[in-house]
Amino acid sequence: MSDSELSKLLGSASPDAGCDHSGDFMDEYCDLMIRGEPIPGRFAEFLTHIGNCAACREDTEGLLAALRGQEGEEPEPR
Predict the structure, then answer these.
(1) Of 21-25, 50-54, 55-59, 71-75, which gets the smallest average pLDDT?
(2) CA dihedral defined by 39, 71, 22, 14, rounded to 10 degrees?
(3) Per-residue pLDDT at 71 exceeds 80
(4) For residue 65, how far is the Cα from the chain centroid?
(5) 49, 17 in Cβ contact below 8 A?
(6) Residue 17 burial (CB < 10 Å; 0-12/13-18/19+)?
(7) For residue 67, with 0-12 CB atoms within 10 Å meaning exposed, 13-18 middle and 19 or more buried, which class applies?
(8) Taking the domains of the chain in order of start, what are their residue ranges?
(9) Over the stretch 2-41, which tens digit does the pLDDT of each residue have?
């Protein structure tokens, strides 16, 4: 088993925000990512969590994909 596979299985020993707390950061994190802004240090536990939790990682990736899709859409006429 490679180190990468082992890390995915065991997760990180760094502080982990947990699923409930990560939801508080997901929207803001995705907005920063879409705008290409640096991710502040206060997101460290969130980043550890999405590295450890496949469900939250998939939610984050899905939100990023949806936001990227909206960027390419034409605005609706008023």
Answers:
(1) 71-75
(2) -40
(3) no
(4) 11
(5) yes
(6) buried
(7) middle
(8) 15-68
(9) 655 545 444 555 667 688 888 889 999 999 999 999 999 9
